[in-house]
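Structure ticket #2291
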Amino acid sequence: MRGSGGRAGPTAAAYIYIRAQAFLIWIALPAKPASPPLACPIGTFTIRLAPYSPYLGEDALMPPTIALSEDILINVTPFETRVALVEQGSVQELHVERSIQRGHVGNIYLGRVVRVLPGMQSAFIDIGLERAAFIHIADLRENRGERSQGLTPTPIEKLLFEGQTIMVQVVKDPLGTKGARLSTQISMAGRMLVYLPHDPHIGISQKIDSESERIQLRERLQALMPAEEKGGFIVRTQAEGANDDELTADLEYLRKLWASVQAAARTQPAPALLHQDLTLAQRVLRDMVGPATGTILVDSRTTTAAMLEWARVYTPSVVDRIQHYSGERPLFDTANVDEEIARALSRRVDLKSGGYLIIDQTEALTTVDVNTGGFVGGRNFDDTIFKTNLEAAQAIARQLRLRNLGGIVILDFIDMEEQEHRETVLAELKKALARDRTRMTVNGFTQLGLVEMTRKRTRDSLAHQLCEPCPMCEARGNVRTPRTVCYEILREILREARQFNPKEFRILASQEVVDLFLEEESQHLAMLGDFVGKRVSLEVESTYSQEKYDIILV
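Resolution: structure written out below.
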């Protein structure tokens, strides 16, 4: 919008340029010598004001620079720790860790092989969890070495045998009825490095784009590694710009950690836990904090002190950002996190334009369907579809992070006729997904107009963590109608009447089913009683679901 005030001089007014998804907002402000950073309860951002000239149209203004930051909120209770990453006042990621359901990814165990399956080239290993864990031949260190050298892989039955003791690491938590997935390729993550004790290789994070920086980091790390070191390292994104002292500290910490794991493996009988990954609060400091992180607010004094102590040793640059929150309002209420959690558990996601998404998660894959809903704001039908898909691309990227959806994801955008529109929507989707730390691949539009993508799944989705299958419909998403149940009961009575000769058939069913028998289906019930020559009575059982019933022979 354009500010009022007539044709003032070029420095009399200024505009703030804000981009929120597909919408552009221009706000006129009085001219000031400088623009201080604007602060809000959740997030801090700096805006460079672009001078307005009455002789230039708004399209001719250069977009100002907006450096947005993200905040991390940590809510701690004795039974649960919850973490929310908030960007621009909007929740982008949610992580939940419960004390009795703590994740196992990253843990190192001394396991015992309980069964080898040559037909599947896999094995089950007891690591002390409720269900035996699973390892495929591709996750065995020996197999990876043979494949990298172009050799014929050795079958799993020649590498593993029942009763064998083996050191393994959990790479995927138990999901549903599946046990944890394991690997013998051990990796231990630090703040800046990932240690690979069995792999003499130095890798650089793909997110470090500068080729000169990649070469420099590799050369510096090689110079810092002890001569007797037989393992390798992967340089993480956080190492960009780090000095030698910081790299050396991380390197030594990881080598000492591995030495303690080896010592535990020599003294403990299998199955045994040799190393447990960091708590959720500590993993926040290790994995989530980056240059864009503003503040880390924690509502527990004990956890704040523990995080500060850990940060002073391993991440000194983060210490100043960790703050204890002592406000009267619950910490998550300041960013409406609980409301976001409730919305993240719903199938439907409403878009600001009036369109909406339908997200369905199954064991095999996740589907996202885009609909225009009540949005009619485009100049024509194609324009309406294009704008809805653009907004949906941003929303889909956020929902994948928010719900922690992984595996195969199928996106069903509204059909677009113009190839240019398809390419623009796909580019917008990839741009929005670039903010996600989880590894993923995105393919183009298929002949059916679908976008296929994958997102690495290591932990349960938010819905799997917080919900369970519905006991009423048994996770089908629907229940049989009262009329369907009535007719099932009538057929069952006919079946029982051929085998038994009771004095009476008594039907125990839900209120809805009994009401239908007393009203619309009363004639059919009476006809059945006359046909079998027995009395048929009804009794309401208030604890029964709509589908449940019993027929008692009296």
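Closing remark: The longest strand covers residues 108-117.
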